[in-house]
Write a structure and sequence with these properties.
CATH architecture: Orthogonal Bundle
Number of helices: 5
Structural class: mainly alpha
Helix content: 55-70%
CATH topology: Arc Repressor Mutant, subunit A
Distance between the termini: 47 Å
Number of domains: 1
Radius of gyration: 19 Å
Strand content: under 5%
Length: about 90
Amino acid sequence: MALTILDEQLESIKLSDEVREKALQKAKEGYVMTLLEMGEISSGRAGKILGVSRLEVIEMMNKWNISIFDDSQSLEELRQEVERAELIISQQIS
C-alpha cells in the first residue's frame, strides 16, 4: 500500500528524513486504526500491517479510544457467545 499525501503546505516544509519517517509512520497508524475502528480489518491484521504484536495493537486502540469489544452486539448475543465459549471449555475439560 502506498500512502500519498498531496498538500502544498506540507510539501513546502523542509524536514529531515527522520522526522518525515516518523510522521509517515504516525499517519499509517492513524489510517490502520481507522480501518480497525470501522470494522474493515481485525486487530491481528492491524498488527501485521504495523509490524507489532496484538498486545501493542490493543494499547494503540486504547490511545485512539477504540473499544476492543464489538459494540454492535446486543446483550443477548453477547450472553449466547459466552454460553458457547463456556460449553466449549467444559467439553475440553471433560
